[in-house]
Amino acid sequence: MKLATRLRAVKPSATFAMAAEAAALRQQGRDIVDLSVGEPDFDTPEHVKAAAREALARGLTKYTPVGGTDQLKDAITVKLGRDNGLEYARTEVMASCGGKHSLYTAFQALFDPGDEVVLPAPYWVSYPDMLVLAGAVPRIVETSAASGFRMSAAELEAALGPRTVALLLNSPSNPTGAAYSADELRTLGRLAAERGLIVITDDIYERLTAHPVAHLGTLVPELRPNLVVVNSVSKSYAMTGWRIGYTAAPAELIRAMTVLQSQTTTNPTSIAQAAAAAALTGPQESVEAMAGEFAGRLALMIEGLRAIPDLRTIVPQGAFYVFPDASRFFGRRGPDGTIASAADLATYLLRHAGIAVVPGESFGAPAHIRLSYAAARAVLEEGLARLAHALGRLD
Ligand SMILES: Cc1ncc(COP(=O)(O)O)c(C=O)c1O
């Protein structure tokens, strides 16, 4: 069958590919420690599930307005005011089917063919593909462990060209956990504002950090006419399967995105919207508890990884991933031949040590592997033991 040309430029998500391979091996009876997944292992908070049950009982099972119910839109505005000091009206927010769908819809509504969008590498796997699908050109700024994987204003400035229209920031970042300080955000934001850039902030890990900082939108209020805030209930409230993300932006963009959504998914699931509203406005203790547990697990991971010779790991500031540089293992020999890349290393670890990690190539960081610590401590300990053993066996 003939497929559309636009698909040629798009790769499947590497994280989901690795998770699928791990699941397939498990089905064959293999014991796999899966540190590839990007989702909290906690259950959705009880009051959120109760809100969904209540929505069902009340018969809220029909179409809702395309961009979400008034109840959810109001909950989003309340959240943005409470957590981020950002004031948005109902007309300036909308819900979509997960943060990924919010980003996709925003990109489709914003970019024309050839528009350049600056983003730092390492980046979340889906950004370049989603940008390419929108016809945009990703302008990638390499960052390094030495600078904590944070892009400086000088690096941003050097990347700007006549076709640059937007800057995409994700702090804390997947995969590095890098988080910008308020000063850094202010400098980057002011430069973006001076150049008239659209700034898209992907705040999906904002609650999962030990060092919360003010939002870019409050630090650089002049950005507001060009600011696109994307967030989701997936990670903060352990609700990855519910598929609710949201966008706050000038009403003009929200209207355009709503038109697109009306011709694609229509509204996100009605029951999930009720649950998301409860998550955003209800008790927030579960978020704090989860973030606290992640901090403990991070300490465990760092201690374990730093004990492995030749693996170089910097301490992330947020999210729930560690992203060690594994390049010193490239060139060593395993049972299937020489390990030449992070992809080879991940394959070796999965097949011969039963541990699933994601290779760095698809994050724009081919020297690295990503390990998620969104798993129980016993699982992490077993994963670290397998990793240390397997890496020690390469020669
Ligand atoms: C940086 C980043 N943005 C957005 C998303 C999308 O999340 P969701 O679509 O589950 O809300 C993810 C998920 O892994 C992510 O890591």
Shape: globular
Strand order of the largest sheet: 2-8-7-6-5-3-4
Bound ligands, each once: pyridoxal-5'-phosphate
The fraction of residues in strands falls at 5-15%
What's the total count of β strands? 14
Contiguous low-pLDDT stretches (5 residues minimum) are: none
Distance between the terminal alpha carbons, to the nearest Å? 46 Å
Could you state the order of secondary-structure elements as H and E?
HEHHEHEHEHEHEHEEHHHEEEHEEEH
Total count of helical runs of at least 4 residues: 13
Summarize the amount of helix as a percent range.
40-55%
Radius of gyration: 21 Å
For the sheet with most strands, the description reads: 7 strands, mixed
Structural class: alpha/beta
Q: Mean pLDDT, as a whole number?
A: 96
Question: What key attributes describe this structure?
Answer:
3-stranded antiparallel β-sheet, 13 helices, single chain, 395 residues, 7-stranded mixed β-sheet, alpha/beta, binds pyridoxal-5'-phosphate
What does this structure look like?
This protein is 41% helix and 14% strand. The chain is built from 13 helices and 14 strands. It has helices at 14-27, 46-57, 70-84, 99-110, 126-133, 153-159, 182-194, 216-219, 251-262, 270-281, 285-306, 342-353, 377-393, and strands spanning 33-34, 93-96, 116-121, 137-142, 164-170, 198-202, 227-232, 245-248, 321-322, 333-334, 337-338, 355-356, 358-359, 369-372. Helix 2 runs antiparallel to helix 10, helix 3 (70-84) packs parallel to helix 10 and helix 4 runs parallel beside helix 5. The N and C termini lie far apart (46 Å). Bound molecules: pyridoxal-5'-phosphate. Residues 38, 98-100, 124, 170, 174, 202, 204, 232, 234, 240, 245 line the site of pyridoxal-5'-phosphate.
